[in-house]
Amino acid sequence: MKYSLCIGAYSGQDEIYHLEKIKEHGFNGLEYYAWWDLNDMKKTAKEQERIGVGISATCTKFISLVDESLRDAYLEGIRQTIEACQILNIRSVISQTGNVLEGVSRDVQKQTMVETLKRCAPLFEEAGIVLEIEPLNGLVDHQGHFLQRSDDSVDVIDQVGSPNVKLVFDVYHQQITEGNVIRNATGYIDRINHYHIADNPGRKQPGTGELNYVNILKAIKATGFSGFVGLECGYTVDTDTAIEQFKNEILSQVE
How far apart (Å, rounded) are the C-alpha atoms in residues 168 and 164? Predict the structure, then answer.
């Protein structure tokens, strides 16, 4: 498995600083969400080549997937994001789904999402990039978010039916929403493109809360998964110290 950090892990530092640190720690990628905030994408691409580590995932310009009136705008954002990914050699694009629309049935909103994703799929297939939808918890962090459960998300992915539309499984969010983490994180492995990890409660680095990340990561590894596991978390101590603790106390037992 490959491990990534998220932009913001080193507060106030740019993507180049993060990439240097990722290389230093022996990790494999950076999740840089707002690609449109990069000052010079071609310069960043050259720096990635120099450092030997690059941006592994970004986000689409967010617009609700459940609102049919915003479909054209969503698709335009997808086209722009794919162009950025081609410059930066990014292979994964994360998309949230938007909040539930009042006065519209859940089934209608779900089918709107499926139809929009079906229109996105050929664009990603041609580009060789995976679009990942992300369920988020509605109890603590994202009240009203449409997709919250992994089974509901997998149903959407199955209806779309494209190898380039998958799921990012965020262990923190799914622990809050549904629990049953290892069963879901491994049972849906063929629909999952990458994982996010953080502990609960608090969304800090693994090892600070209730989740047994040694067992979780061992179970994911046992499936043969070789993609990215991203530390999407805050830190209770200095970032470098926290990462060393994660490697020494958790990864050493997984690998």
Answer: 12
Q: What are phi and psi of 105, to 5 degrees?
A: -65, 150
Give the CA angle between residues 217, 214, 135 to the nearest 5°. 45
Q: Is the dihedral of CA 197, 203, 208, 209 positive or negative?
A: negative
* pLDDT digits 0-9 by tens, 36-87: 999 999 999 999 999 999 999 999 988 899 999 999 999 999 999 999 999 9
Q: Check which CATH number belongs to the domain holding 79 and give it.
A: 3.20.20.150
Q: Report whether 173 contacts 125 (CB < 8 A).
A: no
The Cα–Cα gap between 132 and 73 comes to 18
Residues in the chain, how many?
Answer: 255
Instruction: Output the CA torsion 205→206→210→216 (10° steps).
Output: 150
pLDDT of the residue at 175: 98
Q: Print the domain residue range for 228.
A: 2-253
| Cβ burial 207-220 (10 Å sphere, 16+ → b, else e) | bbbebbbbebbebb
Crossing angle (nearest 10°) for helices 15-25 and 239-246: 30
Domain count, the chain: 1
